[in-house]
Amino acid sequence: MKEQEILEAIQRGDREVLNHLYKVYRNDFFQWASQRFTIRQEEMADIFQDAVIALYRNIAQGKLIELRSSIKTYLFGIGKNLILKYLRDQREKLPLEAATFEWDLKLEQQYVDEGIKILLTQAIESLGTPCNQILLLFYYRNFAMQAIQAQLGYKSEAVARAQKKRCMQYLRKRLLEQHKDELR
Amino acid sequence: MNEQDYDLIERYFLDRLSAEEKELAETRVKEDEAFAQAFQLQKQLVQVVDAQMEADFKAQLQEVEQRMNSSENGALSSQVRSIPRWLYAVAAALLVLLIGYWLLPLTSPEATPTNQALFADHFQPYRNLVVPIQRSQDSLSTLESAFLSYERQEYTQAAAQMTMLYQADSSQTALLFYGGISYLAFDQPDDAIFLLQAYLLEKNEFQDEAKWYLAWAFLLKDKNTQARELWEEVAESATDQNLRKQAKEVLLEID
Questions:
Q1: B60 interfaces chain A, CB cutoff of 8 Å
Q2: Which residue has the higher pLDDT, B104 or B212?
Q3: Quick one: how far is CA A101 from the chain centroid?
Q4: What's the predicted TM-score (pTM) here?
Q5: B44–A113: do the CB atoms touch at under 8 Å?
Q6: Which residues 6+ apart lie within 8 Å of A24 measured at CB?
Q7: What distance in Å separates residue B213's CA from the closest CA in chain A?
Q8: What pLDDT is attached to residue B3?
Q9: Contact, A82 vs A50, CB < 8 A?
Q10: Nearest C-alpha in B relative to A18
């Protein structure tokens, strides 16, 4: 697969490209990383997966439109940063007893937010198809309604738009119901 | 809150607002509680969608890693990472020389006689459609040499050469297909299964054909159910009508 083809495949939402990128560059990345850092293969694999996903996201969301250097250079650049972050985190990890727990407002807010996210995840899942597909295409991939129409086979853009609107209404309703259940 | 408000919030997070609209949205977050709540929810929706998609991708890649990792530890793999490349090449050359002298059984000792017979009756290696070889050529590339072995029915050599070449350049997925068939031809169904499954991980040119051969490899392992499933897929949806027909015939013959 040529680099331009890879770029185009990601832009049109082809998920198989992830496997292709992983298989083509994995061994080189492992070799390159193990020569430079002291890191186990499991961690290298985990990091390289994240690097491939990050590259995919940047292209899918239109943050990377054209390649100024090779895909390999991008991938290894992202991978290198992730390894450095991982090693830094390892160094800074404090033993549990030394960590101090401060119950402040910020922390409390974090718990509330996490709770809402769990509810949201459940609500999206409960919508089923096509709503969850529409929301994923619209919010993750930043797809225009026209592209969503084409991808999901709606007759017109207006139909797709109306469907998305209904999905959002269902989602809000579902969240409201969940919220009431929580309060009960 | 009305639909226009929701639309404004949505476009805020998609970065599709003018400077004025953006300012308006930010002011309303400060002044209107219902708007602020909806705003917060939308922000979280985007984060949740992101997390969900990426968890999906992660699972997909973990599966690929698992396959690649187990193949490295399996029969096919050589200890790629710790051995220098030149040593690897020497080992490969020796391997190719050695296996030239092997006398190999024609059918798998593991398979039942019925399955062995069926395999012997039907198995035909796929023709070389990817690397045309002119016999008069003086010098052959390693790729051509591998396919020449294949055409000469020297499958042990072909399998080893193709595996090596694929490890050096994994964009050449056809090597998995022809390598898998080569292993099958000299009765190494485990290795054939590994290569053909790897080939089928992605959408490739010989998708249906790979399923057809993978089914044979399963049959040689007496895994009739898996073989049957694959042939049923081929019989139902292969592009090549002839292949469909062949799959249907085999399906009638297996237990």
A1: yes
A2: B212
A3: 30
A4: 0.48
A5: yes
A6: B170, B171
A7: 22
A8: 81
A9: yes
A10: B61
